[in-house]
Amino acid sequence: MDSKAGDISLQNVDSDDKNSAIIQKRLNKVIDTNIDNDKDVLEALKELSIFFTENTLISRRNLRSQIEKRSLSINEDFVSAFRKVKETLDSMHEDVLEMNNAVSSMTTQLQNTKAQTHQLIQQTTKLQAESDKISMKQKISEAFIREFQLTETELNILRNSNEISMSFFNVLDRVETINQSCKLLMQGGHETCALDIQQQMTLYKETGLDKIYRWCQIHCKDIESPDMRILLAKSMACLQEHGVLFSYILAEYCTCRRAILVRLFINALTCGNNAIETHAYDVRRYTGDMLGWLHATIPQEKTYLLALLKLCTRTNTDQVLSESLANISEGVTNPLRVRIEKILTSNTSPIVLYTVTSLLRHYRKPHHSVK
């Protein structure tokens, strides 16, 4: 028994020696370790100093449990932090899913909208093409109206104005231009339209000619005015296509001028201190003054007639001029004849008769005819 106890005691001693050697070895290793260069150890010691504040036996015994508790607390904090991260990620996942659903819905709507827009674009293109056609038709219609119709202003000038001006004749010229254009319209195969327009223009022309006729009846006596002379010439040029109206106005003009010429002749004979009849006692002078006055006055009437007929290119102006001048001069033949006959019947002297005859022959020579 004693030997066994001794053996056990020796074994314990050997075991303690071994443990002491191991501890000594570890201590030596720890002592030999250069802690200043080991960052992990420094960080661990720094963390350990936070909760290991007293170096007592109890503290050393509880160090392991405190470290484990500390580790557990850190892990719990880590788990708690990651739980929040997970919840945030789950929320983000749900948001992403919602966004994905929204994007899918928007994609579907865009596709539907694209299909509808495609139809709308086709309809818009079709409507635009129709609009272009309508716009082109409108432009053609407006151009046609400008070419073949009178404007409101022109119609007012033609219908409503009581006076005649150059604008009025411009409107009549436009009516004639439209009539000529209708011939081209007929050649293009638009006979019905051209005939309707021609009929309308004919009515406008008749309205204008009727207005010219009535205006000339009133103002033909004003040929001495330069402004009226131009308008009367334009009026006669318009009336020359209608022979009856042209003849009526020409007859009216001759009547007016004949009356004016007779009045002027009578005034020259009887009015003023230098009246021709104040020298009636001198047969030669008396007869010469009467014939000389007529010789000086009648050419002016020819000038007026030429001005009146200068635009009448479709009329035999020479014949009309000769007949009209004879008509105007006819008014003074009776007063002249009465006075010449009185001279001839009241004087039987051959000298007087010869003198009067010579004067009459002198003014009947071709070089004394009205030029």
What can you see in these coordinates?
The protein is an all-alpha fold and 371 residues long. It has twelve helices and no strands. The protein has helices at residues 2-32, 39-51, 57-61, 63-148, 152-159, 166-187, 191-219, 226-239, 243-270, 283-309, 317-346, 350-364. One of its GO terms (cellular component) is Golgi membrane.
State the gist of this model.
With 371 residues, this protein is an all-alpha fold. The protein has helices spanning 2-32, 39-51, 57-61, 63-148, 152-159, 166-187, 191-219, 226-239, 243-270, 283-309, 317-346, 350-364.
Which SSEs are present, and which pair or pack?
Blueprint: H1 2-32, H2 39-51, H3 57-61, H4 63-148, H5 152-159, H6 166-187, H7 191-219, H8 226-239, H9 243-270, H10 283-309, H11 317-346, H12 350-364
Helix pairs in contact: 5-6, 6-7, 7-8, 8-10, 9-10, 9-11, 10-11, 10-12
